[in-house]
Write a structure and sequence with these properties.
Layout: E1 2-6, H1 10-21, E2 25-30, H2 33-43, E3 48-50, H3 56-61, E4 69-72, H4 77-88, E5 95-100, H5 106-111, E6 116-119, H6 120-129, E7 138-143, E8 148-154, E9 175-182, E10 185-187, E11 200-205, H7 210-218
Parallel strand pairs: 1-2, 1-4, 2-3, 4-5, 5-6
Antiparallel strand pairs: 7-8, 8-11, 9-10, 9-11
């Protein structure tokens, strides 16, 4: 399949990597040069197009008229809606999947013909609300025929990661920390975020990464 992703953040990059491994044709539109460079390094191939995905001419250069699936995955609902509207006006519109950051906007996306609406905040909050033994890593959702999993874990007091920045704890390469709950507050972490006891993490990773995640975030005795 030909898949066009608008938004080259962590999730967009990880999604592109998983799709490429399944031999799909992928193009990612990203407006920040730094992210385009990072994607080329992570994906080890040139699949990113530098440009504003809200512009019809940029989407045309990215191959929207040939795409089977379009994923609007920016961090801004207005931008994602603009992408959806542009795609819907094509003579041959692709199947459209849109990430919605504010649940209040779900109805708007559905009203303009979005095929699949993914309420990012609701998914993360629902995941965090599930009770789990802190000694375990729980699979919440399995994606891509089992090749990807949304995992959740809590950081125990004896975790070797406590007090370290996320960029320094040696996470598996094919792994993205999607969200972190701390003291009742939902955070979107960066590499500089310091891990603390009691943090609850929602992580997108390959199922086989669970062992290394356990060692690095819970400890060998977890």
């Amino acid at each position: 399949m030909r898949i066009l992703i608008v938004g080259g953040g962590k999730v967009g990059t990880y999604l592109a990597k998983a799709l490429l491994e399944e031999r799909h044709e992928v193009c990612v539109v990203e407006s920040e040069p730094r992210r385009v460079h990072e994607m080329a390094s992570i994906l080890e191939r040139d699949v990113a197009l530098l440009g504003d995905g809200c512009r019809p001419d940029v989407l045309e250069r990215a191959g929207i008229d040939r795409a089977d699936v379009l994923v609007a995955d920016t961090g801004d609902d207005e931008d994602n809606l603009a992408v959806v509207l542009i795609a819907r006006k094509r003579a041959r519109p692709p199947r459209i999947i849109a990430r919605v950051n504010n649940p209040r906007n779900e109805a708007i996306f559905e009203s303009v013909g979005t095929d699949t609406v993914i309420p990012a905040t609701e998914i993360v909050l629902r995941a965090i609300a599930q009770e789990i033994d802190v000694e375990r890593i729980a699979p919440l959702i399995t994606l891509r025929k089992g090749n990807l999993a949304l995992l959740k874990l809590s950081i125990p007091e004896r975790s070797p990661a406590c007090g370290s920045a996320i960029s320094d704890i040696g996470l598996p390469h094919d792994c993205v920390i999607v969200a972190l709950e701390r003291d009742g507050e939902l955070l979107i972490p960066s590499g500089e975020t310091i891990v603390a006891t009691g943090d609850t993490m929602v992580i997108l990773a390959k199922p086989e990464a669970r062992g290394q995640l356990r060692d690095n975030l819970i400890g060998s005795q977890g």
